[in-house]
Amino acid sequence: MIVCKFGGTSVASAEQIKKVANIVKSNPERKIVAVSAPGKRSGDDIKVTDLLIDLADTALAGGDVASKIDVVVNRYRAITDGLGLDNTMTDIIAADLRERVQADRSNTDLFIDSIKASGEDNNAKVIASYFNSIGLAAKYVSPKEGLVVNDLPERTFALPEAYKNLSKLKDTEEIIVFPGFFGYTKAGVLRTFDRGGSDITGSILASAVGAELYENFTDVDCVFAANPKVVNDPVDIKEITYREMRELSYAGFSVFHDEALMPVYKQGIPVNIKNTNNPGAPGTRILPTRSETNRPVTGISADGGFSILYVSKYLMNREVGFGRKLLQIVEEENISYEHTPSGLDDISVIMRSNQLTPEKEARIISRVKSELCADDVQFSHEFSMIVIVGEGMRHNTGLAARAATAISNTGANIEMINQGSSEVSLVFGVRSEFEDQILKGLYEEFFAKIPVA
What we know:
With about 450 residues, the chain is an alpha/beta fold. About 35% of the residues lie in helices and about 20% in strands. It has 13 helices and 17 strands. The chain has an 8-stranded mixed beta sheet, sandwiched between helices. A hairpin with a 5-residue loop joins strand 16 and strand 17. Helix 2 runs antiparallel to helix 3, helix 3 runs antiparallel to helix 4 and helix 10 runs antiparallel to helix 11. The longest helix has 26 residues. The chain is globular, with a radius of gyration of 24 Å.
């Protein structure tokens, strides 16, 4: 059995959904299909998810929701008309949206989640209906039928029983069309996954049914060694390990969500990233291990939007529990951290800037000064993390020096260096203004100087 997921651009229009049907039809092993909400049809288009967020915001503000619902329904009507479906489906979608906007609003986050999730949910119903109309026996399956997730306030993840519940889908005779992005708590509360949530859903399904392969269809032929929007004509990555892909996804590779790898990783299920618009291309395969190449580095990625909390105190290294107490203060502000490089008298906590507010920063600074008696405490913003990834890095001496030299040649200063214990990745913290220059410089150093493998 093959589980395949189709992203937003793959299901953005009737024309794209017809391509999806042809792909599914071409291989009878493709029995479970996870789908996103309709994405952009062109560069200046608006995703259905963004239309739904606008609808939710309007509802919470007491505005005219009827016109906002019409905008969303008309987007689906363009799809159903193009697929030759009657108006029954759009009537169902309109009724569904009206019901959702009338739901309980006491928790605004959950209310918005419910509105957003309708994008995937209704698109799955449309696609299942279309499959049946062209003779592909299919059925829509709701996440209510097994994708059990945890309760608030933790970020959303599938509970162990979800895999047991969903394992029954492996016996299907029909094609299962399953909406991505969300699940339900045991109490029946809808919760969405983080960004790239449909990738996570597809991976959960593949793991649950013990799939032979998890295919992730998007709008690019493969994963590239660097961002093609920054680096001209970067090399293709034909094979990449789970660990390499997760490190690259963490730091800005938008092709595949890093959290989506864990369910398939545990089962050893290979992943194939492919292009809906060019399904014959081999794509990029994500595997437990891969054949060696003549490059120590597999890929380079960069991601902005980081802040650094600097804390300095004389003889900090002699103070038992200092780091734990500092991280507890950060935790109590409901902030997760990414890295904690430290020295004898100082420590830095690197975190995503979108978790911070001026009020949180002020409280953290005040508490660290008063409770930990720190000499200096300050936040600094506008940082990027540059990540160099490769299973072959551990076998190559001088790689960090080469990277540092390449960064230095751009005129940028390195604010932080961190290497994971697995030695698969090397992370540099830099000012965001230098991000693109550094990415180009590192690509030149590790790829342009070596012949293609």
